Backbone:
C-alpha cells in the first residue's frame, strides 16, 4: 500500500470517530478492554514511533491530551508526519493495516 492508502484509511477512521462524545470515547473498546480513547491514542503512538524510526530520531512519548475530542486531529497529524518523513511502502502498508484493524475493532 502506498502513502495514499495510509491517508485513506486514516481518513476513514477519523470520519468514523470525529463526532464521538466524551462518553463514547471513554467506553471500553471490548468487554474488559481499554477505552476507545486509549486504543486510538496507542495507534497514534505507534504511527509516531514509525515516523521517528523513518526520520532516524529517538522515539518520544506522544502526549495524552486532556480532551479525547482532540484524538482525531492528533491521529491525522502523526499520520501526516509519517508520510512526510518518506516512509517506504512496506512501512506505510503495515501502518495502514494497523489503522484498518483499529477501525474494525471500534
Residues:
Amino acid at each position: 500500500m502506498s502513502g495514499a492508502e495510509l491517508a485513506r484509511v486514516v481518513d476513514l477512521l477519523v470520519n468514523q470517530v470525529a463526532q464521538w462524545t466524551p462518553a463514547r470515547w471513554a467506553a471500553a473498546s471490548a468487554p474488559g478492554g481499554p477505552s476507545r480513547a486509549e486504543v486510538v491514542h496507542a495507534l497514534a503512538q505507534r504511527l509516531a514511533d514509525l515516523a521517528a524510526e523513518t526520520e532516524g530520531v529517538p522515539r518520544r512519548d506522544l502526549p495524552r491530551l486532556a480532551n479525547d475530542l482532540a484524538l482525531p486531529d492528533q491521529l491525522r497529524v502523526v499520520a501526516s508526519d509519517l508520510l512526510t518523513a518518506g516512509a517506504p511502502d512496506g512501512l506505510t502498508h503495515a501502518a495502514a493495516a494497523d489503522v484498518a484493524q483499529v477501525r474494525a475493532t471500534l
In short: The chain is about 65% helix and 0% strand. The chain has one domain: 3-105. Helices lie at 3-17, 22-26, 36-55, 71-84, 89-105.
